[in-house]
Amino acid sequence: MRTARRSPRALPLTVLSAFASLLLAAGVLGGASPAQAATSDLCAQVGYNAGFRGDGLVTAVAVALAESSCDPSATNTTNNTPPSRDRGLWQINDYWHPEVDDACAYDAQCNANAAYTISNGGTNWQPWSTYNAGVHRRHLDEARAAVDRLGRPGPGPAPLVYPAESGRVVSARSSDGRLEVFAAGADGVHHAWQLAVNGAWSDWERLAGPGGAELAIAPNADGRLELFAINGNTFQHRYQLAPSGAWSGWEAFGGGGRDIAVGANGDGRLEVFASGPVGVFHKYQTAPDGGWAEWEPTGGGPADGRLEVEKSPDGRLEVFALNGEVFQHQYQTAVNGGWSAWEEFGGGGRDLTVDHNQDGRIEVFASGPVGVFHKYMTSPTSWSGWEPTGGPADAQLTSERSPDGRVEVFAINGSVARHLWQTGVNAPYGQWADYGGGGTEITAAANADGRIEVFGTSRAGVYHKWQTGFSSWSEWAWLNSTAGPAVD
After folding, report:
1. Fewer Cβ neighbours under 10 Å: the N or C end of the chain?
2. What span is annotated as the signal peptide, if there is one (predicted)?
3. Backbone angles phi, psi at 286, to 5 degrees
4. Which long-range contacts (CB under 8 A, 24 or more apart) does 402-406 make?
């Protein structure tokens, strides 16, 4: 699953024969010879057989065109870290997905079936670097034409846009796949960005804005990132003027508060949540990429709570809010719809992080004086009880998914950083492992090639550490030649 688009290759006769049989069965060729058929028709047919539908099938075909030019024999090893092979139509990597053997990976239908499973039915394309970097968009017209020739079966799910972690340091990918990171110092917000996809970092630039702020970041429907910053007195936001482009200045967004989080509705409209001394409020775009409604109360929520937003498997936003005494939860009653009442979710704590399994079920972690606990969806409407995991006391938390879909959790307090991960996809967790020294804040994001990059802050500045393999990591280092802002 690499970003480079490979040239089309000649298909072996056995593959062409199978291709022709598939397309004739679907009524696509209509007398055309296999040599005259578009390779995208093969991806459309096996993608449909695997379960992709409608716009989800269009996205699947576009990703396959970007990955392999829809060549079932395609293989790539260039720039793979660690050394590994991307295989077949959807370039299933043999390191991150050893459960897909070569016989399956180079079989068109088996490869499509594996892509359907890994992408959670077409709702999560984050494991594919071409999708993360937006390369698939170049192939959407060709993909749509192939699906139209197939009969454009539908409707189907659009890929879900999962919220990024909020906190005093946040990171998200621009539409071209480069990570951008923002850190809140006493003198305002500072910004650095990758100079190339999966690459080295720029120097830090100071953006002014609220001092000592809590931050949140999300992509608009057109791909432009939007950043939100709040402290006790001020709430401001700024946004990219074009996808992956320059940024606006700071603009007022409301009064001050304790914390913020933001997520994208199913129709692309951003929805922002802010906590303060009288509970949680929200504000939302009235149209994708458009203006904003007025602030509205959510009907309660913990006072001065820490907030995170996640998406249910069906695309509904869910909000989790924690303070020292109480943990509560609120969710949309329908995609793009209204909201439930706040529900009790557990006792109080220090911090929380929320993520999703490969099958879409939400996982919630919360820290407190005796370590880290977690709770997870057992169905779309039910939850497990809280379970202890160990881990550092009163830690700041973050989480991200490895390229194979396993949830990984990172915790830091003033003395130590530690790391916990699932032993398999949708599976239980192992034991906490040392991850470095102490600090003040932590966040994780995924590079365009899927590798996790973790940012940790301290009073000395901002560090980062990144995945070099399935279970191997770089050492902590500055992003570039400068330390960045001190974060208390």
Report:
1. C
2. 1-37
3. -80, -15
4. 402/96, 402/450, 402/452, 402/467, 402/470, 403/1, 403/93, 403/96, 403/127, 403/446, 403/449, 403/450, 403/451, 404/96, 404/97, 404/127, 404/470, 405/118, 405/127, 405/357, 405/358, 406/358
Q: CA 34 to CA 147: how far, in whole Å?
A: 18
**Domains (ranges, CATH) in the chain?**
34-150 (1.10.530.10), 166-478 (2.130.10.120)
Take residue 404 and report the two structure tokens written for it: 């194979």
Question: Per the structure block, which two tokens stand in for 452?
Answer: 């996790």
* Cβ atoms within 10 Å of 57's Cβ, excluding its own: 27
Cα–Cα distance measured from residue 437 to residue 129, given in angstroms and rounded to the nearest whole number: 31
Hey, which residues does 434 pair with through a beta bridge?
418
Judge contact between 463 and 204, C-beta under 8 A: no
Helix (H, G, I), strand (E, B) or coil at 175: coil
Q: What's the average pLDDT block by block, 10 residues per block, for the chain (488 residues)?
A: 34 34 32 53 96 94 98 94 94 95 98 96 93 95 95 82 97 97 98 96 97 98 97 98 97 97 97 98 98 98 98 96 98 97 97 96 98 95 96 98 95 98 96 98 96 97 94 94 91
Do 8 and 85 touch, CB atoms closer than 8 A?
A: no
- The pTM for the full model equals 0.89
What Å distances lie between residue 2 and 68, 390, 474, CA to CA?
9, 36, 21
- Work out the angle at residue 307's Cα, subtended by the Cα atoms of residues 372 and 160, and round it to the nearest 5 degrees: 95
Distance CA 203, CA 482 (A): 7
Tokens 């706040």 -> residue: 342
